[in-house]
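Q: Predict the assembly, please.
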Amino acid sequence: MPAVRFELHHIDAGSAARRSTFHTPHGPVDLPAFMPVGTQAAVKALTVDQVRSTGAQMILGNTYHLALRPGEEVIRDLGGLHRFMGWGGPILTDSGGFQLYSLAQNTKVTEQAAVFRSHIDGRLLELSPERAIAIQEALGSDVAMVLDHVIALPAEGDAIRDACERTIRWADRCRKAATRSDQAQFAIVQGGLNPDLRVWCAHQLADLDFPGYAVGGLSVGESPAEMYRILDAVCPPMPAHKPRYLMGVGTPQDLLHAIRRGIDLFDCVLPTRNGRNAMAFTDSGPLRLRNSIHQRDDRPLEENCPCLACRHSRAYLRHLFLADEMLGPILLTHHNLTYYQRLLVGARQAIAENRFAGFCNEHLCRWHLPVAGSL
Amino acid sequence: MPAVRFELHHIDAGSAARRSTFHTPHGPVDLPAFMPVGTQAAVKALTVDQVRSTGAQMILGNTYHLALRPGEEVIRDLGGLHRFMGWGGPILTDSGGFQLYSLAQNTKVTEQAAVFRSHIDGRLLELSPERAIAIQEALGSDVAMVLDHVIALPAEGDAIRDACERTIRWADRCRKAATRSDQAQFAIVQGGLNPDLRVWCAHQLADLDFPGYAVGGLSVGESPAEMYRILDAVCPPMPAHKPRYLMGVGTPQDLLHAIRRGIDLFDCVLPTRNGRNAMAFTDSGPLRLRNSIHQRDDRPLEENCPCLACRHSRAYLRHLFLADEMLGPILLTHHNLTYYQRLLVGARQAIAENRFAGFCNEHLCRWHLPVAGSL
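A: Predicted assembly structure:
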């Protein structure tokens, strides 16, 4: 009995968008889905009940951060990550590969392992593929990501190929290191902005038969068009009967463009981080709450939005940010996550009804963005 | 029909503790009660639903802070403070008198008015008794506090007497400035640590026949014993059929000592501020969550506490503070306010059952504090 199961319900008639369900040991996830980011065993600014009330079914934690603090053995001894943070639903943990990029000045990569100098206290953390899996098994997440080698772009062709090949070798080592039957591993396709390399990598990893596949190493500074071009190349060779997860992406429009190309799963700090910085996502595009235009505006951010922020006026939300009240970040985080989840509810419905391309273009229009061409 | 009504149910057989209900235009408040502090139209770190779920019935806002930001006319135009912040229950607004003490370096007091230099942008705010009432009427609070003259202690006898006499004259001016029939004013007894002056002030203000009375100018650096001595002096001459409010106080033990002397109402930043600083109130005394003793402690802060923090382990709460996650302050704020409200539920029950002195001493024992002598 595999730890997870991917149930494909329907493919949109006018695009590659897929409606499916991802079954995990902690319950099902309706795909396409967006995972709020809970790097340090907490989705910033929200209680787990509030996270759940946005509609989120699955969240993300981070291997590197949790291994450093509080330490995976503390979490294991306290019953695992689900119990530690009080989240009963599915959890995916990233492997630390992304921190090779985001904390590059503190890391050194050899074939054996990545070595980090802790951003907290300077102590060394050696993260081999085997150790990345051991940590994630201690955390007890439903999905563990393989350790991948993420590099900054643009980079030399050789460096990109080298990191891509290492990612494949590390994926194989991760697979062999697995000991828990209640945890699935997802492999990660790398290859920079080189479509041929991406396709080759996808094929290599597909041969290793993982229960899920991710596209990594994007959203690292390239343009949206470059990212979509890579998705055009990499989605078709990714196994059709496995979930496809686009890591660290993205804006609402990125999600729609990626779903249209066959992506099922996302995570991104954007809704939470932007919420803390007074930016609200709405169907008319982003609102910046510190702007004086909102000073006496009695309207909610969005009509008919069920979130905690939309019980208040824009004027009140603006006041909270100007007065430096924590409640401002709390409420806007709840709004933005609710916005993302409602967008995905709509996307799933549109796929089921074979009208995803129209759904997509309708939203791009409302956001004052160029509509997508045909695939 | 007066805006508020004080319904005295019972006086404890063994102390001066009173069980009563305070009826306001926005509903009843069971007394003795503790008001969470929402200075800037928000109880720091909590949504209004979370504030309500702690058991709080009435909260506090601040005239000085709200007049500066967002401005009382903004709040008035948006339907008043209750609607602005989404709190449907009773609200009491402090007058700005306390800021004469806490922001003393930016203030000048004449017989006509206090003049503040804004701590935000340096602009001048003239707060006369009439203006303090006009602002509070624009805010639409259920209870407006008169403008009082709070000074730092210790101070010269003449300075204390002068501020006390001015407070009485200002109270009279506030009363005459009132135009709203749905807002009650509370007068404030001043007089420093001089019991005779306090008693004289209480008598003078009683003659002005306010619907409620407060004890102000305490919790400004004096010892608990000095504060209790003043309460011993000032409670008896305060009108028995009006609510008695001890401003800005205090610790859990302060509340019990004051209730025992006949105080009905409190506000204090302690549970919220200490919560943000990783200190939790419990029946065994305060816990400092950053302490390494909690690293692997699977117990909640308090058994059987219904708050949001007590769904988690002490180890998790400690992790949140070490990882600088906003959720730490959020959860501990909710716990501490819940702790205060539960303490007052117990106090009210004990008064009704004529066992308040025992209740009081039992708690002081658990907190490892000296028990109170007889009154």
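Chain A has a mean pLDDT of 97. Residues 327-352 of chain A form the longest helix (26 residues).
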